[in-house]
Amino acid sequence: MREPSEKIRVLIVDDSPFSRQLLADSLDSHWFEIVGFADGFRSALEGYRTHMPDVITMDIAMPEMDGLEVTRRLIKQEPDAKVVIVSSMKDDDLEKLAKCKGAAKFLQKPFEPEVLMSVLRSVCDADVVDHDFKSCYPAEFIASFSNFMKRFITDVTAQSTVDDTRLYSSGISILVGITGQYSGRMVLDLSVETAKCIATRLLKQEPKDSDQINDVIAELANIVAGNASSKLNREFRGAFLRVSPPAIFTGEKFSIASPNLEIHAWQVDTPFGKARLSVGFKKEIV
């Protein structure tokens, strides 16, 4: 079995040189290795037995035999083969047929490279890695926040709180979306006064107005989420975590609900007041 830290070995089955190159160029060579190309059943079977790839990308429209039938025959002879259909056509019936033939996933062209890599990685080694990811990500996010804050404020402590799927704002809430193999979000919440004091410390001068306070806290949240995500990407090859631009919410008469996320939350005590950090990813990581 391939170790999570090893490159994912890919066999590309497609009769079009252009499509082959497009797929190959979409795969980051740090995480993926192209072990061969094929253009039909015989060359696919030979390529699989020769190189034993972790995953196969399979086009549908090929001259001698369509990719769905190639998939069926290949898996019949090599039950451990993992096939991802990559086609310009996709509908519910076609996707169901592909699954019946044995395909693990179905991806429609065109696609972003991150999407292709995420799908291939999810097919290869999801179960153990997902369990490890769910165990590790809370510690990485609170460590990222604490380490950043301690560069400017020495007296910072964090305590885990009840994992509530609804967060009630104290005045300013910064939400950072996270995409990739695992999708979720991080929220930093604090009072206006606490935000102003922290912004003053970071800027080393009084903020000009509330907009500048919000911008400073939003950038703080962006750095925290980005650093944690980068660390997780190094630990879990193929996670491809990316952070979205921070969304700023102000006021005390709203809450942020995350019913489909597994939430971890902390109360952070600083000399300037309390802050709350919460992070969550989908309960069923697939």
UniProtKB/TrEMBL annotation:
Residues recorded with modification 4-aspartylphosphate: 59
Keyword presence, Phosphoprotein: yes
A Pfam entry, by short name: Response_reg
Keywords attached to this entry: Chemotaxis, Phosphoprotein
One of the GO biological process terms: chemotaxis
Record-linked PROSITE patterns: RESPONSE_REGULATORY
SUPFAM superfamilies, sorted: CheC-like, CheY-like
Domain Response regulatory: 9-124
Superkingdom of the organism of origin: Bacteria
Entry protein name: Response regulatory domain-containing protein
